[in-house]
Every structure is written in structure tokens, then in C-alpha cells.
Amino acid sequence: MISILRTIGIHTHVPQGTVSAHTRSRQRLIYHACLATALLVTIATTQPVQAAGEGQTKFKRISTQYIAALGDPGSTSGSGAQSWGLWPLDPGPRGVKLNRYQSLKQAGGTAPARWKFDETDWWLEEHGLIMEQPTVPLPPGKYVVTGARKVTAVLTIHSADSHGDRRWELDQNATLYDVTHLACRSARYTPATVGGSCSPATAKQAAFPVAPGGAMPPVEGCAKQDYAVLIVIGMGVEN
Question: Which of 48, 95, 154, 202 is an S-S bond match for 220, by CB 3.0 to 4.6 Å?
Fold first, then answer.
């Protein structure tokens, strides 16, 4: 399958010397706009996909959503999906800049987009924006996911087993890396010690933006967990 960016008319390679300064500036904006960019991808609402032992599953196009995923980038399946999360709305434009953290505190932790900041459990994205938490756990179901590069696949999230574990799997032999949007970086920050302080005020703004595929920067006093970001463009529906 061709690149999602190419399907919506964004060409990522132009010979040097053939574009204006305005065009180069526009290309940089496109390159850096990650979570704030809506990917318009057309998928057939009745396209059948085989589901093992269950006949066929139909899919519908949805407004772009985002999954925060954990796992071996080279794996096509695994466990632990109960710790994955979903942003039903693009959290980028709804985020708060690090240099506005004090204003966020003064507002009682309520962001302009009306989400609530939790000083014991907070998220950053690649430009240094404080984001709202995703919805955890990710509901079981089938998701059409992509990394906006070459691969689009169906991600199945299974219901929890007797131990509370939820398995995940990708079809078409796709790996988690294949459907990770590398330009989108996200990490969860929690206190490194019980009762310790973990504040966005100690984050180094000079560490941003983070390069595509790079690790999110550490923050003093915090334990950090990097998450892969998957773009969701469709959902399985009941027959």
C-alpha cells in the first residue's frame, strides 16, 4: 500500500533549489505537525476483512483517533494491551505548552480545552505540549491503524482474560513498528518515588522538539514511559 501522506497529496521529497522559501516553510510545518494534522483517508465502509473463526468483519471510516501503545516494535502480537490508551480527539491542539504550566496550575489544573491535569500522572508530546491522558484501557475491538508510512493493518484488541490481561495482534504480518507514526512522540511521567515530586516545571524546554523516532526526554524526579502512537482511521462494526 502506498504512503498515507501521498494519498492525501503531500509529497515529502522535492529537489533542492526548486522550491521557494514559502514552500519550504510550508513543508516544515507539514513535517512537524503531528497530532495536530488530520489524515483524510478513504476506506470502504463495507470492505470485508477475514476474522479467524468469525467469518467476516466490516469496517467503517471514523474521524482520526490515536492509540498510545506499548510493546516490542518488531512484534506482530503480544499481551499487555490493558495498559494501552486511546485519544478519541486529537490531543495536540488541546495541549498546553510547558511555558504555560504555571497558568495551568493557577486554573486549578483545568486546561483551556476543559481536560484536567493530574500532577501525579501526566503526558508530554514531541513539541513539549502537556497532553490530556488517553482513555485507559483501550476498549477491545478491531481498529484500522497506520503509521502514515507504508503499512495499514487491522489491530485486534481482545477482551481481558481471567488474569486481566488483554492480548493484541496485527494482521498482514505487520509489526507494531510498521504502524507507529514515528513523528508523533509521547511519554507518560509519574513520580520516581512514592510521595515524590514530578512536575512539568522541571522539564527542559530546550529538549524539544523530539526527532521522529527519538526517545522523549527525561524529567527530573519523574519515571518516564515512552509510548508508540498509532493513527486510527477505521473501526470494526458488528454484522
Answer: 202
